[in-house]
Please model this.
Amino acid sequence: MKTKSLVTFGILSMVVFFIGLYTDNYMLRMIAKPFPVLAMLVLLKPVDYYSKFVFGGLIFSVTGDMLLEYEPSMFVYGLIAFLLAHVAYIAAFLKRSKKIVLIPLIFLMGYGMVVYWLLYPGLGNMAHPVLIYIIVILTMCWRAFAQTDFNKYAVYALAGALLFVVSDSLIAFNKFYVELEFARYLIMLTYWAAQSLIFYSAYATQKKLA
Model:
């Protein structure tokens, strides 16, 4: 019952956030935005190495959520919070596998170079922070590829990592390249889906072992 209630609460919070986005209601957005990930934090018990680092990643993500929504001047601090979230996810994935998976690495490096090349003219003094962030999030995605044979739930972590790349790419292009129609709706949908999938890779493993 607790799980169903929290999932329902998280989904309703998403709906309220989108209503705030549609009506340009700042308070609705600020109040509703953190609750979907907070619901995941309540459900996830940090009892092993993997779940502890996923839990940490979710905490940093909630912090980043609030900083990015608070005001545009907090963008760099939000970027740092999400960078730390990705570092936590990297640590979680590395515990599951330290394999060198070359093909995903090559594709991700190529993607990162193309994205940075396109964004660079509009980055200004954000050029170095964005470059560091691209390297870290793509490293996170690479390590998600490496751990897919850990158990049957590990593929959810990979799907979440890929959606995180999509979400953050949308943020970057919308902010530094060209404004995209319905960008914020797409960003938040892909972001919450990404977090849900990474969370589920830890949560489902716990449920199986319980």
In short: Residues 113 and 134 are 9 Å apart (CA to CA). The chain has nine helices and no strands. The two ends are 17 Å apart (CA to CA).
